[in-house]
Write a structure and sequence with these properties.
It is built from 24 helices and 28 strands. By secondary structure, the protein is of the alpha/beta class. Strand 10 and strand 11 form a beta hairpin. Helix 17 runs antiparallel to helix 20.
Length: 800
């Protein structure tokens, strides 16, 4: 115990000064560094690397605080916590960030030069971001920081590509591909979002000789790409038309009418045109019926020469022009407005297209059963998040497209032989085929064409366990540490990051990458809406940190069950501030009495045994809650105990004994206070690391509370008899306080007597704590009356 605790606790707690002090101290002392040579049990975290091009938003503050609750708890269990940090500076977002900041164009530099520019230009942003995250009081080992565009990460990603190619898992093929015209690149199925958009159904007449067939479509701009018309084989309206041909209006090509069960008789007119390509069904029909290929779109989302006079028009302009010409020709029979779901690119919200391009893929469709099995081996917190993963796999229709038509990114370690068209693989990594010389081809030729595409950013981000654990650089360390203990992440990227990392983990190591997945929700605005700049409802966490404190913000983050979306309510930060202030004031009171006290065995009073009995239950429940990742229950249960058991009742009951000079009863109170207050600080430490560190430092020793041991419930301190007495005492005290309030008396007002109506058994119990009852109610005597239910009355000192 600090010898002068009283003088070291100021009257007012300054959270900003204290929080900065301890954040600097933790970093300076490397308190959270992983001890590589230690024999302690390891708890490893596959930390989500934030994007460098952005800044910390409220969702980050929310989810990173929650994962830190678990990291700090595991550290207090005595485990060697491996909690690395990373920055995601790979991909389109970083490319645009650096171009804007440095006023350059990536395509006007060599890829290596631009990569170096990204590394230097993002360094300043990374330092600022690091300070933002540190200001939350999170506890990663910042000495173990990686950057997804540095040489190590590039080499790791390229090594993964080479291994999967050797397994026969990767292939390059010219095939229908999901394409973003805005970003001008292929994208993966996981990068799609459903967006409800306004459109129109257009009933268009196709000629069958002198007759007409009516087809309803939302995409008349694809008429030049029409290769067939489909009807359902059981649709009686069109059975006689199957096998005939129709002529496409405006463009004139004749196409067959075919039957297929994928045509929906209830949609539109029941007759649907197949264009190459409007959607997934078009691709299935094209393949199943060996239809010709007619592409009418360019890579940048304009009509090509197949569209005739509409060539060069952007898609939406072409749609308007074609509709007008259909109307003028009499082929547009009807038009009605609709609202329907459309696939858009999640990054830019552009409606996607399907184009035939040459891309690299990883075969995953044959792994569905294996991936589902792996998902069931993972412990999901909360459990229901597993269903999102399983639903994604069940609905998966595409192999993983891993090539992107971007300039900046991780290069494919590949060239193509101009002589034999064979694939030439790199022998040394990292490599950039645009600037590095190709090895000789197996045919002996050294004349090679470099692959110009780059790897999808998720092909690299899916390797965060391998990157953090130095895969293939130090396999002894990797094999010891892999699989990792925990993947923390938000629910919206289960299909991105978690799924893709699972794929890589199974293919490279045959193992599920982690034992647990911790899935957080979103931080929403006060009305339950997602925060976005366009809505103008963004709440900046740094502003809240300045207005309140990191501990107050973490208190808010702990109010939500894991996985639940949480509307931001400033009143929760106000409550957090109030709680921190109360903890500080209670600590000042307790530590002034503990000054010079050292913990020693003593005979405990009934009330002190009651408090310690209740404390053991709290410790046991909080331990269970943390093991289940139920940090919100830890907060709720500890807060309930602190306010109502400890502050409202026990500290009031014990004041008389504490102010006595010396007595066995005072020693008993000091033992209970010291034990309970330290245990409360420790149980709150994962949630509120700054205030608990400050109080612990000033009152309980120099070592950090965050590397001290988590409290353990002690069976020897359980006492049901004392618990019964304590609970009955609190009920009587509560009744006396209510009676004082009804008589407009202060709680400190002296009483002549307290009268308790109770059973004979309850009377015997109360008599064992009668001295505590007299002290706290300030009564001269207690009288008892027989009653079936507990009744409390008071007589004021003046007899009124």
């Amino acid at each position: 115990m600090t010898q002068d605790a009283r003088s070291e606790l100021p009257g007012q707690y300054d959270p900003h000064a204290v929080e900065r002090k301890w954040q600097d101290s933790w970093e300076r002392e490397k308190l959270y560094a992983f001890e590589e040579g230690s024999s302690r049990e390891v708890f490893s975290i596959d930390t989500p690397p934030p994007t460098v091009s952005g800044k910390m938003h409220m969702g980050h503050a929310f989810s990173y605080s929650q994962q830190d609750f678990i990291a700090r708890y595991q550290r207090m269990l005595g485990k060697n916590v491996f909690y690395p940090w990373g920055f995601d500076d790979n991909g389109l977002a970083t490319e645009r960030f650096v171009e804007k900041k440095c006023k350059v164009r990536a395509t006007q530099m060599s890829r290596k030069e631009f990569q170096q520019l990204c590394l230097t230009s993002t360094k300043e942003a990374e330092e600022e971001l690091k300070r933002s995250w540190q200001s939350l009081g999170i506890s990663p080992d910042f000495e173990r920081t990686y950057r997804t565009v540095d040489d190590w990460c590039i080499a790791t990603s390229q090594r993964s590509f080479l291994e999967l190619y050797a397994q026969g898992r990767e292939y390059r093929k010219e095939a229908p591909t999901i394409w973003c015209p805005e970003c001008r690149t292929a994208i993966a199925q996981v990068e799609l979002e459903d967006r409800e958009l306004e459109s129109s159904f257009n009933d268009i007449a196709f000629a069958i000789g002198k007759e007409k067939a009516v087809i309803a479509t939302t995409r008349p701009e694809l008429l030049p790409a029409c290769v067939a018309v489909f009807v359902h084989p059981d649709d009686q309206r069109y059975r006689t038309l199957v096998g005939k041909t129709v002529q496409v209006p405006l463009f004139g090509q004749k196409v067959p009418i075919l039957a297929d069960v994928r045509a929906d008789p209830q949609k539109g007119t029941g007759m649907v045109m197949c264009c190459t390509f409007g959607d997934q069904t078009d691709m299935e029909w094209w393949k199943a019926h060996s239809l010709p290929l007619r592409i009418c779109l360019t890579l940048d989302g304009k009509m090509n020469t197949l569209a005739g006079k509409y060539a060069g028009l952007p898609l939406k302009e072409a749609r308007k022009a074609i509709i007008e010409d259909l109307r003028a020709s009499g082929a547009l029979l009807a038009q009605r407005s609709i609202s329907h779901m459309v696939n858009v690119h999640e990054r830019c919200s552009t409606e996607i297209e399907f184009l035939v391009t040459k891309q690299w893929f990883i075969r995953v469709l044959d792994l569905k059963d294996e991936l589902l099995k792996a998902g069931r081996e993972l412990v999901w917190r909360p459990e229901h998040m597993r269903h999102r993963y399983e639903n994604w796999i069940t609905g998966l229709q595409w192999d993983w497209c891993i090539s992107r038509q971007r300039y900046f990114g991780v290069p494919f370690p590949v060239w193509y032989c101009r002589k034999c068209q064979g694939v030439i693989l790199a022998k040394e990594l990292p490599v950039d085929p645009l600037t590095d010389k190709a090895p000789a081809c197996a045919c002996g030729s050294t004349d090679a064409e470099p692959e110009r595409d780059v790897l999808d950013t998720w092909a690299t981000s899916s390797l965060t366990p391998q990157i953090a654990l130095q895969w293939r650089e130090d396999d002894a360390f990797f094999n010891k540490m892999y699989p990792m203990s925990l993947r923390p992440q938000a629910h919206d990227i289960i299909t991105f990051w978690l799924f893709n990392t699972m794929v890589k983990g199974l293919l490279h190591s045959g193992k599920v990458p982690w034992s647990h997945a911790m899935i957080s929700g979103w931080a929403l605005d006060q009305h339950g809406k997602k925060m976005s700049k366009s809505r103008g409802n963004v709440i900046e966490p740094l502003e809240m940190l300045r207005k309140f404190s990191a501990d107050s913000l973490r208190y808010w983050a702990a109010s939500s069950k894991l996985g639940e979306d949480l509307p931001f309510q400033e009143k929760e930060l106000v409550a957090g501030k109030k709680f921190v202030t109360k903890l500080w004031n209670a600590s000042r009171f307790v530590l002034q009495h503990l000054q010079g006290y050292s913990l020693r065995e003593t005979k405990l009073t009934t009330v002190d045994r009651w408090l310690l009995h209740r404390l053991q239950g709290l410790i046991e429940q909080n331990t269970k809650s943390f093991e289940l990742f139920e940090y919100s229950r830890v907060r709720a249960d500890t807060e309930q105990f602190f306010w109502h058991v400890y502050c409202d009742n026990y500290l009031e009951l014990v004041k008389g004994r504490l102010y006595a000079d010396t007595s066995p009863e005072r020693d008993s109170a000091l033992f209970a206070l010291s034990t309970t207050h330290l245990a409360l600080l420790k149980m709150l430490a994962p949630l509120l690391p700054h205030i608990t560190e400050e109080v612990h430092h000033l009152g309980f020793g120099k070592g950090s509370i965050h590397v001290s041991s988590w409290p353990k419930a002690e069976g020897g301190l359980l006492d049901e008899e004392a618990n019964r007495a304590g609970e009955l005492l609190i009920a009587v005290v509560g009744g006396a306080r209510k009676a004082k309030n009804e008589k407009a008396l202060s709680l400190g007002a002296e009483l002549d007597s307290v009268t308790v109506g109770c059973s004979p058994e309850e009377r015997a119990v109360l008599q064992s704590v009668e001295k505590d009852l007299l002290d706290v109610t300030r009564a001269k005597r207690v009288t008892y009356q027989d009653a079936k239910e507990l009744i409390v009355a008071i007589t004021p000192a003046d007899g009124k």
